[in-house]
Amino acid sequence: MPAAPGAGGKRVVAPPPLEATPTSTPACVLQREVLGAAPSERRHRAASFSHFGLQREWDLYASSAQPWWPPFFLRRRTAVQEVVAALDVVIALAHSGVCAAYDQDSGEPLCYLNVEADEVVRTLFLHHAGPATQLITVSVFSGDAFQRLHVRATPVSALRARRPHAWRPLFETEELRYPGFVEFCDVNGIAVTCSAQSSCFKFFELRAPGQPLWSLPTQGVSDLKIAQGTALLVLRPEAGAPTHELHLKVLDLRDGACLKELRIFLKPSSSGSAAAAAPSGAGSGGNGRCACCGAAVGDGLVGVEVVELFGQHLLVKQAGGPLLILDIAKGGSRAVPAAEFSAPSAFIHLSFNSTFLAFWQTGDAQLWSLEGEWLASLPGAALPTAAAINTIFVGNQQNLI
């Protein structure tokens, strides 16, 4: 997803499971929602969580051995924005940009990841590169007015050894200034950069980020989304093309080859009604601005609130219209009435279960099947902001959230 101004961006995708578990199917999820877990399962869960208690508590703004830290502009206390853990090291990031690492066992502070006095860390990403787990940070600095993104990778083992300076830069050739961005995908092991200076998307393999796998001009692209093994391009209408026609391309994430070209026709009604015609392939798009150059797109189109590609299923929702779920491989579509599904602020695709989680900033989260069936609600799982999805953990079997 495109980054916010001056910020890094990353999509949260549930990891694929190692093996199937019968109790994680949508039908079983629905059964447990209605009937509750079996007595033995309830007893097992109660026993599993009975020993839970507070083990460690840290203060990101505690006094440091470095008298100059934190600098004045980072001393205002703010909420914790992200927490990640690996190799018994816990890394916490506050909304202000203060980032610190702690020893999980002893509780001892290890180091600050703000290696410069004017550095503001914007986001964290853990990359498990074989035995060497690395922490990727995206930062901005006051020296360039907090406008350019700086990406670096630091071995978690170096943080444990209190060596935060043992980092290496990533994507040095890219001028990542607003409205440019960097996006990470843990499922595919891919990073995407968008440089406003070169007007180009570049796709890097995180295991070997020195050279891009392939690149793509941003010209004509309204938005770019990363799915499992594919990249979805939402294209701007060409000159003379119907303003109610939205144009998509699905590309192979490894080499950029076009796998499918898709179109969908939306009813150009100011009332925001549903899509009128069946798709000639399938597709999505919407009003807005180019993910990189900021140019206005989609003039005259009904606003499109949702465009997501989950495997072979495309989700499209116009303002005031139903949620359309289109199977781009087999054809066919299903519609969820607008009264039952409003536009959420964030999604998590559970590919193994053929389901997805939808989150709203107000109200409970919901679990839906890709057949358009409501399966369950998650009371109290409302997100204060869309960025809060970074605080959600999904287990390897995709049955623990």
TrEMBL record:
Q: Which InterPro entries match?
A: DUF7899
Q: Sorted alphabetically, which Pfam families does this protein's record hold?
A: DUF7899 (PF25463)
- Give the start-end ranges of region Disordered: 1-24
| Superkingdom classification of source | Eukaryota
Q: Could you identify this protein by its name?
A: Transducin WD40 repeat-like superfamily isoform 1
What organism does the record attribute this protein to?
A: Micractinium conductrix
